[in-house]
Structures are given as structure tokens and as C-alpha cells.
Amino acid sequence: MKIKIYSIVLLFILFGCIGCKGNENNQSLADSTSECDFSPSPYIFNFPSHFPEYNIPRSNATTFEGIALGRRLYYDKLISKGGPMAGNACASCHVQTTSFSKVTTSGTSVLPHINLGYASFFLWDGKISGSLEDIMYFEVADFFQADLLLINANDNYRKMNCEAFGTFEVTYQSMANSLAQWLRRLNSHKSKYDMYLEGLVELTSDELSGKILFEGAADCHICHPLPLTTDFIFHNNGLNEFSAPGDAGLNEIDQGRYKITHLESDLGLFKTPTLRNIVLTSPYMHDGRFKTLEEVVQHYNRNLKYSWTLDFFLGQVKKDINNESGLYILDMSEGDVNSIVAFLKTLTDQSFIVDPDLSSPFVD
What is residue 273's DSSP assignment? Predict the structure, then answer.
């Protein structure tokens, strides 16, 4: 009888201890949740007077905490672990030293992550439209297919998510929002051209001649308006000759916006890339066909290919009646071409590619 009583008492003690332990765990979890200090600090953008302000959605105000979380996710290969892009981070294809683009030798070239806060279409063909939050949701949920269980198993991410958004649980939306904040931070406006506009430096005669041509006879500014150097929309810039979607001479990679809209009027149209830091982002065009800026300018000068969706303004340039191929040309001199290239080089922002605040937060 005593043995039974002792056994019952022992069971009560045992289960009592287990219950106490469970309460301790629950209390510990509650304590960790209550320790979340959600008091984000607003990030104030300091744009020069010649730059427009960002139109930032009220639902995702830019904060230091949100930027910090987005920066870490941008550089972390954990974002792709177990998915189709395993082993890669955003920064694998968007490298700071090349203005957050990447040198490619084949396939579609990588557009730089620079001044994207003004854009409403993303990727060469505009596959995703809307806000930076929309494109980054696509990136984490569809492109990388980030494993939320893995992300939430990381104490750093839970803590940073809480500091940025007031909750420990990391979601695709909070990842997208923080990455959008980070991309808005990737703005560049400290080139020689910017300093010229602020009256701090003078352009050389060659650079100034190039600027005059850029905004005048060469008509570069129509698709690349200053100061942002992109209109953020789509154009057929005369890279290929074709007559219809089934044209044997037009590869899928060259179909452009048509792949998204299936409108024949969009055949061969691609998003206008920024020319800021253009020196750092070769090769050029959606397929990387041109290796140098001289080749690019010469393309517009005398090597345009005619097609029925060729951009209206490119179709208005002088046609060389002596050119049996019927190509449209500007007929600029070699000196004019060199001057335009000289001006393009003034759009380089060296501080952008060495700024430690934009570099990886991980120690090698």
C-alpha cells in the first residue's frame, strides 16, 4: 500500500515538474516576444535639387530597420536554400562594383539595381509591373521560392523583422517590403554630371559637346531623359529585322515585351535601361551584344535595323539614299560619337560602388 502511495506521489511530482518546465518555456517565449522593441526610425532621403522625390507607399514607409533587414536578405544565400535558385542571393547577380548588375557572357543581361524607386515596370520585358514591393514579392515567393521555415528558424531574422515591422514572424510580404526599402536606398546621384548641375565642377569641351548632342541632334534624351536617363518604358531600338512573331530571324530572347502582352505592336520592345553608371554595366543591350559604348553609339549612328515596330523617333532619322540595305543613320562623325561617349562617362558615380553602407553585412 505504501509503495502505491509513494508511486502516486512520485507521479504527481514528475508531472508537476514537467508542467513547471512547460510554463517556464511558455514564459520564456512570452518574454522574448515582449522584448521586441518596435520603434522604427524613419529614413530620410537626401536627393539633390535636380532629382524628383520618391513616391513611397504609405503601407511601407522607409526606415533604418527595414533597410537593414532588406540589406541582409539581399546578400544572404539562405533566401534561395532548397529552391530552384539554391546557392544564390540577390547579390549573386547584382554586384555592387558593377552598379548592382553583373557581367554576363550569354543569355539575357542583368539590369542594374539603381534608382528603381521611380520605376513601375521591372525586368527587360516588364514581366512584373507595379511597385518595388510587387517585384520583390515575386522574387522571394516565385523566383527564389524562399523557405519561410528556414528564415523563421533564424533568430536574427525574427528579431530584425520585429524591429522593422512589429512582429517576429517573417512572411513573404515582410521580406518583400524590407527588400523594397533596401532597393529604394540604392540611389545614385553623385556623378560628375550631378556635380556639374550643382555648379561644383565644369564639363570638359568634349563632355559638353556630347551633352549637347545627347539632348539635341542625336536625340538620345527622348528615351533617356536627364537627369534619370531613362523613361522607364519600352522601345524597339532597332536591334533586329523582323516582320512578324513567327519570323525565323527573331529568337525568343529578342521578342521583348511581346512575350508578356502577346501584342504584335510590342514585338522587339524592351525596357529603357538607365545610363547612370553605364560604364560599369557592360555588355550592353538585353542580349549583351555590344561590348563597348562606342559600339552602342555607332549602332544608333548608322547600324539600326528596320522593323515595323521600330520606335517612331528612330524611324525619323535621316535615311541614307546611297545605302542599299536601307538602314537608317544619323551620320555623326567619329568625333561626335566620341563626344557622346565622353558625356556618358560623366554619369559614373564612383561613391555608389564603394559605399560600405551598401556592401554585404556579412563578414567574409
Answer: P
Whole-angstrom Cα distance, residue 124 to residue 286?
7
Rounded CA-CA distance 196/215 in Å is 16
pLDDT in tens, the chain (364 residues): 444 444 443 444 434 443 443 443 333 333 344 578 899 999 999 999 999 999 999 999 999 999 999 999 999 999 999 999 999 999 999 999 999 999 887 668 999 999 999 999 999 999 999 999 999 999 999 999 999 999 999 999 999 999 999 999 999 999 999 999 999 999 999 999 999 999 999 999 999 999 999 999 999 999 999 999 999 999 999 999 887 666 656 788 889 999 999 998 999 999 999 999 999 999 999 999 999 999 999 999 988 888 889 998 886 655 554 455 555 678 899 999 999 999 999 999 999 999 999 999 997 6
**Residues paired with 234 in a beta bridge:** 271
d(CA 163, CA 40) in angstroms, rounded, equals: 7
CA distances from 130 to 56, 57, 123 (A): 12, 11, 12
DSSP annotation of 300 reads: H
Placement of cell 548608322 in the chain: 302
